Automatic annotation (TrEMBL):
This is Pyrroline-5-carboxylate reductase. Belongs to the pyrroline-5-carboxylate reductase family. It comes from Paralcaligenes ureilyticus. Residues 8-99 form the Pyrroline-5-carboxylate reductase catalytic N-terminal domain. Pfam families: F420_oxidored, P5CR_dimer.
Length: 277
C-alpha cells in the first residue's frame, strides 16, 4: 500500500464511496483520508471506516495533498470557494463533477488572471465500487507529469483509465462511461422483464440475463473480431435472433442510443453554463 498519499474527499456520497472502496487500503490509509460532508449520517458512515470528517471545509484540508471534489455540479462553486482558503501551492485538485469545465474550476481556485494549474478533471463510474470502473481524465495545461501520474494512480485503484484532451471530450466520456452503467442497468432490467413475460421466474431471469451480458462483454473484449462480426455469428438466417434484431432495427435502437448519448453530452455542456455563474 502507498501510505504517503493524503487525500480529502469533498462530498462523501455515492461516487466518493465507490472511489474510496478501491483507494482506502490500496493507495492511502483510512486515517489519511479527510471527508467533508454536511450530512451527519454520511459523516458517521465515513467515521466508522476510520477517516476523519468535517461538516464544512476546515484546516485539515491543508494537510491533504490531493483533494477530490465529489459534490453535485450545482454545489461546486460554493464548495470550491469555501475550500480555496485551505489550498497549498502543491495541492492537486481533482474534480469528478459532470459538466463543470476545468477552466471554470481553475478560475474559482486561482487568483484573478492566474487560474489554478494543478487541476485534473476525471469522470469515473460506479463500477469503481468493485474495482471494475473506468475513468476518463483530462489535465489543464501546466499540470506536471508527476501530478498526472498521481491522478492516474488514484483512478487505477478502481479500474481502467483513459486520458482525453479537453473538456468536450470529457463530456463525451460522461455520456458513454460516466452515465453508461445506468444504460446497462436499464437494458438488464428490460431483459429480465422480457424473460419474466416469457414465463421464466425471477431467479432464472436474473441469472440468465446477467450471465449473457457478462459473457458477451467478455467475449467482445477478448475476441479479435468486431462486435458486428460477433453479432452476425449469433444471427442465423431466418432464425430467432434475426427476428429479434428486426424489431430493434424497426424501433431504431441504434438511433435511440445515439440520441440518448447526445442528450447526456448536451446536458453536461448545459451544466457547465448553468452552474458556472
Ligand atoms: N453517481 C455517478 O455515477 C457519478 C457521479 N459523478 C459526479 O460525482 C459528483 C457526486 O455525485 P454523487 O456521488 O452521485 O452525488 P451524491 O449526492 O451521492 O454525493 C454528493 C455528496 O455531497 C454532499 N454535499 C452537499 N453539499 C456539500 C458541501 N457544501 N460540502 C460537502 N459535501 C456536500 C451531499 O450531501 P447531501 O446529500 O446532504 O446534499 C452528498 O453527500 C457529481 O458532480 C456527479 O456529476 C461522476 C461520475 C459518476
Ligand atoms: O447523472 C449524472 O449527472 C452523473 C454524471 C455521470 C453519472 N452520473
Amino acid at each position: 500500500m502507498t501510505q504517503e498519499l493524503t487525500l480529502s474527499l469533498v462530498g462523501g456520497g455515492n461516487m466518493a464511496t465507490a472511489l474510496a472502496a478501491g483507494l482506502i487500503g490500496k493507495r492511502c490509509a483510512a486515517h489519511d483520508v479527510h471527508v467533508i460532508d454536511p450530512n451527519e449520517a454520511v459523516r458517521s458512515r465515513w467515521r466508522e471506516q476510520g477517516t476523519t470528517v468535517a461538516a464544512v471545509p476546515d484546516a485539515q484540508l491543508s494537510d491533504r495533498r490531493v483533494w477530490i471534489f465529489a459534490v453535485k455540479p450545482q454545489h461546486m462553486k460554493a464548495v470550491v470557494l469555501a475550500c480555496r482558503p485551505f489550498l497549498r501551492p502543491d495541492t492537486l485538485v481533482i474534480s469528478i463533477a459532470a459538466g463543470i469545465t476545468s477552466g471554470t474550476i481553475a478560475a474559482w481556485l486561482g487568483a484573478p488572471g492566474k487560474p489554478w494549474t494543478c487541476l485534473v478533471r476525471c469522470m469515473p463510474n460506479t463500477p469503481a465500487l468493485i474495482g471494475a470502473g473506468v475513468t476518463g481524465l483530462m489535465a489543464v495545461p501546466g499540470v506536471s507529469e508527476d501530478d498526472k501520474a498521481v491522478a492516474q494512480q488514484l483512478m487505477r485503484a478502481v479500474g481502467e483509465v483513459v486520458w482525453v484532451k479537453d473538456d468536450k471530450a470529457l463530456d463525451a466520456v460522461t455520456a458513454l462511461s460516466g452515465s453508461g452503467p445506468a444504460y446497462v442497468f436499464l437494458f438488464l432490467e428490460a431483459l429480465m422483464q422480457g424473460a419474466r413475460d416469457l414465463g421464466l421466474n425471477d431467479e432464472q431471469s436474473r441469472q440468465l440475463a446477467l450471465a449473457t451480458l457478462n459473457g458477451s462483454t467478455q467475449l467482445a473484449a477478448l475476441s479479435p473480431d468486431s462486435p458486428a462480426v460477433l453479432r452476425e455469428r449469433v444471427t442465423s438466417k431466418g432464425g430467432t435472433t434475426a427476428a429479434a434484431l428486426a424489431v430493434f432495427e424497426q424501433r431504431q435502437f441504434t438511433a435511440i442510443v445515439h440520441e440518448a448519448m447526445q442528450a447526456a453530452s448536451d446536458r453536461a455542456a448545459e451544466l457547465a453554463i448553468e452552474f458556472a455563474q
